[in-house]
Amino acid sequence: MPGLRRDRLLTLLLLGALLSADLYFHLWPQVQRQLRPRESPAGCPCAGRASSLDLDSAAAPSAPRTVVHNFSHARLRAETGGARPRGPSSKLQALFAHPLYNVPEEPSLLGPEDLLLASQEALRYYRRKGARPAQETGHGARQPGSPRCRFPALLLLSPPSLPPWAAAESPSPAGELTTLAKVQNGPERERTAYLHLNRIVNVDMILISRCVVTYIRAKNGTQKTRQCEFESHLEYYYERRQKLYKEQMNLTSLDPPLQLRLEASWVQFHLGITRHGLYSRASPVVSKLLHDMRHFPTISADYSQDEKALLGACDCSQIVKPSGVHLKLVLRFSDFGKAMFKPMRQQRDEETPADFFYFIDFQRHNAEIAAFHLDRILDFRRVPPTVGRLVNVTKEILEVTKNEILQSVFFVSPASNVCFFAKCPYMCKTEYAVCGNPHLLEGSLSAFLPSLNLAPRLSVPNPWIRSYSLAGKEEWELNPLYCDTVKQIYPYDSSNRLLNIIDMAIFDFLIGNMDRHHYEMFTKFGDDGFLIHLDNARGFGRHSHDELSILSPLSQCCMIKKKTLLHLQLLAQADYRLSDVMRESLLGDQLAPVLTEPHLLALDRRLHIILQTVEGCIEAHGEQSVIASGPAERPAPDSGQVNLTN
User: Could you say which residues bind ATP here (predicted)?
Assistant: First the structure.
């Protein structure tokens, strides 16, 4: 008996030791992580906003691989702090501390003529614009966190005597998705038509048009189309729902109107634009602007100007017509700032097929984000600040938009994900839709530049524009002496414009962007003003291929700014390797990893090609002819194209 008790004691001691080890090594670290305060700028904002994200509205569990993969990375970064490496081991901080990034820029800023905006005029303009939302709605804009107007199903009057096969069911728990009718389509299948918010939505590809539901019933090998017996009831439902929605939206808000704050980051960003770039090197405004675009709630959503052009709202001749394979929206935030939203269309590890023409390639949201970081590392500062964000397409787009056309292109997929697509004359179908998971969707947000009313911009065709046809070629692709012709044309004959074109070509070659058909610049700064590097979403498509024709301005003209060359040579050194500083810089984005490792390594390979091209030019024409120190010093070889490295 005593022996048995000793055995029991040993067993209890062993179990107690195992339990203590489990508590100490497993449970206690988890409790510490939960109790540890997290810094919101560095971590993922999703955890703090979990209560505001409506994840169960019309959504069965569905997990597209891309969204889940990157969302899990965002959570991992939140748990680990999500901060970039700091201190002596940070190559990015060492790069920005290098004397080359602290050299005073020339020409020095002398006065108001070097600033893009006159501050007083700009502030008056923004005050007027800030008051417009209140005038349009009759009340103040909705405060962040205040209840959103919905379509409560309880307010809908029940239509009399629906057919027995059409049953109006109770709404979903979120009160947004209501089953309107179940239609038998053969003995083995039943299809369902839904009301989603204020639209009739067909989630199973039944034709629903002008509030009329039709269905096809197969019988004896023949197909017959029959109009629903309750067309009038559908019209009644739809009109009643629209009426209630408008009444709710026009109710006087009890919340105080949102006020335009002149210290808002986007206002300060606009006021800080000079002839040297969109922002200064050490400007704290950019970091604040990126943070605000990542976290501020949206108060409106609308199509961009090129989509509106196709709908007759503006002059189509000023834009390149979009197709359904790309989509962008304008989102306005609670501080009245605006950003261009480009949703995720392609997985990060996918390469653009070699058979794709550059003008039908996908527009990638991660390319916009990476292009901004690369532009800042190169010290160009010509790409508007861009940040990644997980957007709730239901709450942050659908529920805040007033554009009925945009509302009409939302639907619920068969996988119960909320989707929408572009509205344009061709290729705009549900096959080209972007979908949340079920509501969250990755995208890039690019800060808007000042209004054209305040800061007019000039859109100029790129002299090295490509042929947007299946078989045509431009003159520069056939004539190796093409640059001699360009140098004789205004404004490339006397200004700094040609050197800026070559800077842009170097930037495009690094990201692999073949779609630079136009460039823009502010008219106030004249012919020597910097070029704005907009629309970089077709970059980073093929990491395994280096498109040498993008470098044609450099190889044909054999000219480069001394400042640009010094930065490229610095980034080729091991202590400041371009791929390393890009990797570190992109870790600060919510959607990290923004680029896959092959794309980062391709940057180093392409940088080496650029430097070899410059070396070939120097060997052929001499250093003084190739390297230009400033606008007044522009000697260049008369002709001759250097051979590019294969």
Answer: 342, 446-449, 520, 535
Among 521, 228, 182, 541, smallest CA distance to 360 is for 541
DSSP H or E run through 35: helix 28-35
Buried b (16+ CB within 10 A) or exposed e, 274-286: bbbbbbbeebebb
The pLDDT of residue 305 is 72
Average pLDDT of 112-126? 90
Q: Which amino acid is at 418?
A: V
pTM of the model: 0.70
Return the amino acid letter for 212. Answer: V
Confidence of residue 571 (pLDDT cuts 50, 70, 90): very high
What Å distances lie between residue 56 and 155, 171, 341, 416, 434, CA to CA? 22, 13, 24, 10, 19
Report which of 171, 60, 176, 69 is spatially closest to residue 438, judged by C-alpha positions: 60
Cα 611 → chain centroid: 31
Q: How far apart are CA 285 and CA 297, in angstroms?
A: 19
Residue 439 near residue 57, CB atoms below 8 Å? yes
User: CA 424 to CA 323: how far, in whole Å?
Assistant: 7
Among residues 54, 302, 515, 546, which one is catalytic? 515
Residue 58 in contact with residue 416, Cβ under 8 Å?
yes
Of the candidates 539, 524, 556, the residue with the CA atom closest to the CA atom of residue 595: 539
In this model, does residue 151 exceed pLDDT 50?
no
Residue 194, SS3? Answer: strand
Summarize the annotated binding site for Mn(2+) as residue ranges: 535
Q: Count each helix (H run) and each strand (E run) in the chain, helices first.
A: 20, 18
Residues annotated as binding site for ATP?
Answer: 342, 446-449, 520, 535
| pLDDT (0 to 100) of residue 331 | 96
Sign for the pseudo-dihedral over CA of 336, 339, 340, 341: negative
Q: Which residues make beta-bridge pairs with 190?
A: 184
Instruction: Write the pLDDT tens digit of every residue in 515-534.
Output: 898 999 999 999 989 999 99
What proportion of the chain, given as a percentage, has pLDDT over 90? 42
Choose among 460, 466, 463, 467: nearest CA to 489: 463
Q: What is the CA radius of gyration of the chain?
A: 29
113 three-class SS: helix
Q: Is 306 a catalytic residue?
A: no
Q: Identify which of 123, 105, 126 has the alpha carbon closest to the alpha carbon of residue 114.
A: 105
Is there a cis peptide before residue 159, judged by omega within 30 degrees of 0?
Answer: no
Read off the pLDDT band of 66 (50, 70, 90): very low
CB 196 within 8 A of CB 412: yes
Size (the chain), residues: 646
Beta bridge partners of 418: 412
Cis peptide before 491 (omega within 30 of 0): yes
pLDDT at 438: 92
pLDDT tops 90 at residue 487: yes
pLDDT higher than 80, residue 29: no
Judge residue 197's burial from the number of C-beta atoms within 10 Å of its C-beta, 0-12 exposed, 13-18 middle, 19 or more buried. Answer: buried
Give the chain's mean pLDDT.
73
